[in-house]
Design a protein that fits this description.
Order of helices and strands: EHHEEHHEHEHEH
Protein name: AAA domain-containing protein
Structural class: alpha/beta
CATH class of one domain: Alpha Beta
Organism: marine sediment metagenome
Oligomer: single chain
CATH superfamily of one domain: P-loop containing nucleotide triphosphate hydrolases
CATH architecture of one domain: 3-Layer(aba) Sandwich
InterPro entries: Bact_polysacc_biosynth/exp (IPR050445), P-loop_NTPase (IPR027417), Wzc-like_C (IPR005702)
Strand content: 15-25%
Helix content: 25-40%
GO molecular function, one term: protein tyrosine kinase activity
Largest sheet: 4 strands, mixed
Keywords: ATP-binding, Nucleotide-binding
Shape: globular
């Protein structure tokens, strides 16, 4: 599996995996740096990272280039899975451009960080661009803040062992 950091404006994968940001994606696209010299192995088994690379004045142009499309196709041949990390979709068009060369799209939203209406607009934008949407992930969700869910968690905790054991029961 390869994680491709296509958020070249505010990349994060190099920090997450404690590796150098450059050379990376932008260096391959703008300078023809060889792919093999840029892909980095992580400490996790079968996980590789292609970092964002050097800063560039034209990120959207690079993401929509023929070179980017060719690179993604080549990476898909080399790796079983290629996960492309993009900038936030509501503010920047990079994710929409990259969805056209991806097999599928998964939205990730921070709980309380984006409105339902904004998510619906984003979905419509991607759907009209023929993106194949697999689903969404809601992160930073706090169960205690949403009492409806918390209440059922309480009942589950109370009743979870109610039917768990037959020990001490009279057999008919």
């Amino acid at each position: 599996t390869l994680i491709l950091d296509a958020d070249v404006r505010k990349p994060n994968m190099h920090r997450l995996f404690n590796i150098e940001r450059s050379p990376g994606l932008t260096n391959i696209l703008a300078e023809s740096t060889p792919i093999e010299s840029v892909i980095k192995k992580t400490t996790f088994e079968n996980l590789w990272v292609l970092t964002a690379g050097s800063k560039t004045p034209n990120p959207l142009e690079l993401m929509g280039s023929l070179e980017m499309s060719s690179l993604v196709k080549e990476l898909m041949l080399k790796f079983e899975k290629v996960i492309i990390d993009t900038p936030p979709s509501l503010m920047i068009s990079d994710a929409l451009v990259l969805s056209k060369i991806s097999d599928a799209t998964i939205f990730i939203a921070k709980s309380g960080g984006v409105s339902k209406e904004a998510l619906i607009k984003m979905k419509e934008k991607f759907t009209s661009g023929n993106a194949r949407i697999l689903g969404a992930i809601l992160n930073f969700f706090e169960v205690k803040k949403h009492s409806y869910y918390y209440k059922y968690r309480y009942y589950h905790k109370y009743y979870k062992n109610y039917y768990a054991s037959n020990e001490g029961r009279i057999q008919a």
